[in-house]
Specification:
This protein has about 425 residues and is an alpha+beta fold. It has a single domain (about 1-70, about 100-145, about 210-435), classed as Outer membrane efflux proteins (OEP), CATH 1.20.1600.10. About 60% of the residues lie in helices and about 15% in strands. It is built from eight helices and six strands. Helix 1 (about 20-30) crosses helix 3, helix 2 (about 30-50) packs antiparallel against helix 3 (about 110-175) and helix 6 (about 320-385) runs antiparallel to helix 7 (about 390-425). The longest helix is centred in the N-terminal third of the chain and has 68 residues, at about 110-175. The two termini are about 25 Å apart. The relative contact order is 0.13. It is found in: Cell outer membrane. Its main location: membrane. Belongs to the outer membrane factor (OMF) (TC 1.B.17) family.
Length: about 425
């Protein structure tokens, strides 16, 4: 059962899967949720990568060179007391070793500073995206969950219909054996039972497919069994009165954060106009001689060091930076247009969800009254049939009508729950399905 695979705060020893438990399981096990959380984790590493550029950069290097033929340079012999002659002199030694440590530090780099600020916003972007992924997963799980519930309710309805028709068949069988009823009526009842059994098998097959879809939606192994609690759908008409604020929607927050990142991208382009200043330094040790200079006491060694400042001042690059800034402005404008369009779409979805809730409430109410009326008609028809005042056809028709009324009610309840999910989503409260 499900209890064998749920741990921690989930099912423990229970054998039923509630909507809240299904959502929690999905948020912990579904691939989309795991990947979104990994993106949040990875965003911190991106911040670390950008921050590293503001820290000192230290590198060490070493080299060993052997010069079989040392290049000679020409000197004026007059410098050495031999006027009129050219003297060829070799500068250097055959062997040369070098070890150096270099340090560089950014003192002013506008692009780097902008990147540090953008990295923080990038992390916030992935955090919002993780929240949006969770909400999308919750919506998908809730819809799949209620579809399984509808199959369960349809199965219960057809079982009730089978039970009633079977009772009628058993009564007819006794009457036929006593010679008080025609066998054709018994046969017609058997046909009705067989039809109901065929319908039941179809529902069982559909239920298995829906259960598999639910397991996949929450990331559960398909081989596991799930059992839904035996309860009816709640209908809450007060949901329509809840205030809708499009600014609370995660989709809006995500797009706003995207615009913020585009603004940082623009600032990064503008930073190309700023000069940059960095400090460099090195400390080295050089050895040279006629023989291999390492571990050689006859070799000569000399330390050296240097400290400097590097200043880079952009003067003219043909308008490349201006073109990049203009492109960044266009990208920001397009993102703002997308944001306004998204808000219009979300407002439309909210109004549609409210309308669907209203219609679903009316349909549920009508179907409930219809179920009660169909039940009264079936009971009266059964009583009339026992007293010879109704035909078998009327009896079977009343039982089918009662089953149809129950199925219609189940379908309207499912439609209500789907509309309810959309309204909860429109109000930005899908997370409440986890904590309800």
């Amino acid at each position: 059962m499900v209890s064998g695979i749920f741990t921690g705060s989930l099912l423990h020893a229970q054998e039923t899967l509630t909507l809240q438990e299904a959502v929690k399981y999905a948020l912990e096990n579904k691939a989309e949720a795991k990947k979104a959380k990994l993106d949040v984790e990875n965003s911190q590493y991106k911040i670390d990568e950008v921050r590293a550029g503001a820290l000192p950069q230290i590198n060490g290097s070493g080299s060993l060179t052997y010069n079989p033929l040392i290049q000679k340079s020409a000197l004026d012999g007059a410098l050495m007391g031999k006027p009129g002659e050219t003297i060829m002199v070799a500068f250097g030694q055959p062997w040369q070793a070098n070890a150096v440590v270099q340090v560089s530090q950014q003192l002013f780099n506008q692009s780097l500073f902008t990147g540090l600020k953008a990295a923080k916003s990038t992390r916030e972007f992935y955090q919002i995206n993780n929240q949006l992924t969770d909400e999308q997963l919750i919506e998908k799980v809730a819809n799949a969950y209620y579809e399984v519930y509808q199959s369960d309710m349809q199965l219960q309805t057809i079982d009730n219909n089978l039970q009633n028709t079977t009772k009628t068949r058993d009564v007819l069988k006794g009457l036929v054996e006593a010679g008080l009823m025609k066998k054709i009526d018994l046969d017609r009842t058997e046909v009705a039972i067989n039809n109901l059994l065929a319908q039941k098998q179809q529902i069982v097959n559909a239920q298995e497919l829906r259960e598999n879809a639910l397991k996949f939606a929450i990331g559960m192994p398909i081989q596991e069994d799930i059992v839904l609690p035996k309860e009816t759908f709640d209908v809450n008409a007060r949901m329509i009165a809840e205030e809708f604020n499009v600014e609370n929607r995660t989709e809006v927050k995500l797009q706003e954060k995207q615009i913020e990142l585009l603004e940082f991208n623009k600032k990064a382009m503008i930073s190309a106009y700023y000069p940059s200043l960095s400090m460099t330094g090195n400390l080295g040790y050089m050895g040279f001689g006629q023989k291999f200079p390492i571990f050689n006491n006859d070799a000569n060694f000399a330390p050296y060091s240097a400290i400097g400042l590097n200043l880079s001042i952009p003067i003219f690059n043909g308008g490349s930076t201006k073109a990049k800034v203009n492109q960044a402005n266009v990208a920001i404008s397009k993102a703002r247009v997308d944001l306004e369009d998204s808000k219009l779409g979300l407002n439309l979805a909210s109004e549609n969800a409210k309308s669907q809730i209203k219609n679903s409430l009316l349909t549920v109410d009508n179907n409930r009254r219809n179920v009660q009326l169909a039940k009264e008609v079936m009971d009266n028809t059964q009583n009339n049939y026992r007293n010879g005042l109704a035909t078998l056809t009327e009896l079977l028709d009343s039982e089918n009508a009662y089953a149809d009324a129950q199925n219609n009610l189940n379908t309207s309840l499912l439609n209500y729950k789907v509309a309810e999910i959309q309204l909860i989503k429109a109000n930005g409260n899908l997370k409440s399905l986890v904590n309800e």
